[in-house]
Structure formats: C-alpha cells, structure tokens
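Q: What would this chain look like folded?
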Amino acid sequence: MINSRLPDDFYKRNCLEVAFELLGKILVRIKNGTLYSGIIVETEAYEAGNDEASHSFIGKTERNKMMFEEGGKAYVYFIYGNHYCFNVVTGRAGEGSAVLIRAVEPVCGIDQMMRNRKTTNILNLTNGPGKLTEAMEINMKLNGKKLSGNEIFISDNPLGSVLNISVSSRIGISRATEKLNRFYLKFNPFISTYFDKN
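A: My prediction, written as structure tokens:
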C-alpha cells in the first residue's frame, strides 16, 4: 500500500474522471511516525470554468491559488471557522479544478483517529470532509504538498474490488446544484449522507 502511490498523470485529467476513479483508492497520511489511512468512499468534483460552486469560478485569489497548480497537489482550506477540507488538484496548470475528498473508510491509525476526534464511534469518525481531516491530522501545513510525497498521498488499493458507485448532486452548496458531481460507494456506512436531490 505505502509504495503504490498513484502516478502524477492520474491527477492531470478531467476532475470528473478523477473524482470517479478515486473511489476505492487509499488516502494515506503520515505524521510523526503515525500512519493514518482510509479507503476513499465519497468525492465531489469542482470543475474549472462554468462551475459556480467551485472556488476557482471567481478567478485566482490568495486563498484558492493552489487550485490553479498542475494536478497532483493538495488543496487544503479552512471553512466555517472550525474545520479543514482536503482537496486533490486536478487537470493542467492554470485550469482551476479540484476534487473534494468527502469521506473515507478508516483502515490504519483508528485508535489515534478516535483520540483526535474524541469519539469511539467508528461510523462517526471520518464520514465527512471536516471529520476526516481532524481524524487524520490534515491541516493548512499540507496545502500545496505534492501527492507523491511522504506526508500525504493516495495509493491503489492492493485488494481491489468491484465498486457499486452512485452519483448525485453535491452537498451544502447553493450554486450549480444541478450538477451531478458527487460520487460515492453505495451502501457504504462511512459516507457522509445518502442525501440525493435527483
């Protein structure tokens, strides 16, 4: 698992394709010798250009400039004054697209994740973008880090699997609500919600 990082070219594609294909892959975070990992079970794509819900829609700013980097870097931002969101930058440099990792199924480092989250309920551990970043100690220090590095990366799942993937509209947005840019593993107990407007 540790030595099977996804290649850089995986991320340098359309963010909808990347968001779909990230499902089932393994998010790995290593901090001070602690290994955290989880199977990605829910993603949301934020496209370049006409996606009004995307941070890049207004153009490059100090906050969102990492979205305009070449695919394969982490875009981390602080929201609502209390949690971080972890995104995977996709596409070409200057494009401005990214995939939000909304939920993972915890695999390694679960005991420490529980301490970080102050909960013993494993189903409430990483089932949301703010929950997973708190559990896995993902914060602004990782903004801009290459996903081929040693602090945070995504790997293939060595077990492989046949995935039952569902598609829906995105959650918690007020613009571009018609876009079916949310992908999740159907019936997986670790997704954030089964809400689906469509």
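The chain has one domain: 8-185.
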